[in-house]
Write a structure and sequence with these properties.
The protein is built from 15 helices and 3 strands. It is mainly α. The protein has a 3-stranded mixed beta sheet with strand order 1-3-2, covered by helices on one side. The protein starts with a helix and ends with a helix.
Length: about 375
């Protein structure tokens, strides 16, 4: 796959470095130079927040509040309610090993994965995939199935998904509204939980082996070290055979975690095994785009948290629909962000969002 990918990139743009070609395929006009600048800013901003959250010993989350057995049927009922809440009506919710979204316009479908003792696995998968599905549903109808009638990039797609999943779905304002409704849907399971402790548990910050299971703050570091590996791989500084060893060393460097086998290490993602090299930055740029869009939405929809507390998500979804979804592929992602926010893409907006949110949650 690596050999084929190099050949493929050379056919597309023989004058460019392999990784520049691959990055542009997934995130148009994104160069390795720009990527490294943004990732440097992101990494420097994240590390002190992570350290402060972990050091806040008095406010560490109580995982017993969320790690409770919830039958699959109940989790599905909650999932369908979530879909209705974010205005993703008429779509399907099914089960798969890895949550995913398929379809466009009038036929968008999502899947989720149920874990008995951790409802958040499915809960946030539904919100994440629901964010993807809303983007696909709300593409400009007059350009239906034309090149301009699709998403402008994988990163912007991830940005919409993570906006709904994290910025909305993990916010205190959301749970002020949804917790009573959630308790009603789940019966007696969460009857005793209180808002503040529950929200802190949902927003825990804890380095982990898994990208998919990573918290909102440490998540981007998983993408940064993957890109460092890809850069070395396509610069032929490391070989495919050395990937497990390099991966395990990066996991130790970034998270001080020992990897026991390749299933929980270099093989945990499906992207490299099907040749999607250069895709991982999309996830990190999704966070970055989301943070910058939130900065702008705060100006144009300053009462969005009050709307959330009242259970009214429609104005928020409409803002995303007008500013992102219905623009389709009219502009490349960085141009779209510049147009919507009036500012060039920067990781600082996402860092500022995390700093404000987690300093309140963990009192630092």
């Amino acid at each position: 796959l690596v050999t084929f990918t190099k050949e493929y990139a050379a056919y597309l743009a023989p004058e460019k470095a392999t990784l520049d070609v691959l990055l542009d395929l997934h995130e148009p006009e994104l160069s390795l130079k720009t990527l490294e600048e943004v990732f440097r800013e992101l990494k420097e901003g994240l590390q002190p927040i992570i350290q402060a959250c972990i050091a806040s010993s008095a406010n560490q989350p109580d995982f017993s509040l969320i790690h409770r057995p919830v039958p699959e049927a109940v989790q599905r009922t909650v999932g369908l309610d979530q879909m209705h809440l974010i205005s993703f009506d008429g779509g399907r919710l099914d089960e798969s090993v890895h949550p995913i979204t398929y379809g466009f316009y009038d036929d968008a479908r999502i899947t989720t994965r149920y874990v008995l003792n951790d409802f958040t696995n499915s809960f946030y998968s539904v919100l994440h995939e629901g964010g993807h599905a809303l983007y696909n549903q709300n593409m400009p109808r007059k350009y239906k199935y034309q090149p301009i009638g699709f998403a402008c990039s994988g990163g912007m797609h991830e940005g919409q998904a993570r906006f709904i999943e994290n910025i909305i779905g993990r916010s205190t304002a959301f749970w002020e509204f949804y917790l009573p409704r959630f308790k009603k849907l789940t019966g007696k399971i969460f009857k005793d939980v209180l808002l503040e402790a529950f929200v802190r548990a949902i927003n825990h910050v804890q380095p982990s082996k898994s990208r998919i299971g990573a918290d909102e703050v440490t998540y981007s570091l998983h993408l940064i070290f993957r890109m460092e590996i890809e850069k070395a791989l396509f610069a032929e500084k490391i070989t495919v055979k050395e990937l497990p060893e390099v991966w395990n060393a990066k996991m130790q460097e970034y998270f001080a975690i020992e990897v026991k086998n390749d299933t929980e290490g270099v093989l945990q993602d499906m992207h490299w095994p099907f040749g999607a090299f250069g895709y991982f930055p999309n996830f990190a740029f999704g966070n970055i785009y989301g943070g910058q869009l939130l900065w702008k939405m705060n100006q144009e929809l300053p009462d969005w948290q009050e709307l959330l507390r009242a259970g009214n998500l429609s104005p928020i979804i409409s803002w995303l629909k007008v500013n992102v979804h219905q623009k389709g592929n009219l502009m490349d992602p960085q141009e779209l962000i510049q147009t919507v926010t009036g500012r060039a893409v920067s990781a600082q907006y996402f860092i500022d969002y995390l700093q404000e949110k987690y300093s309140k949650l963990f009192d630092f």
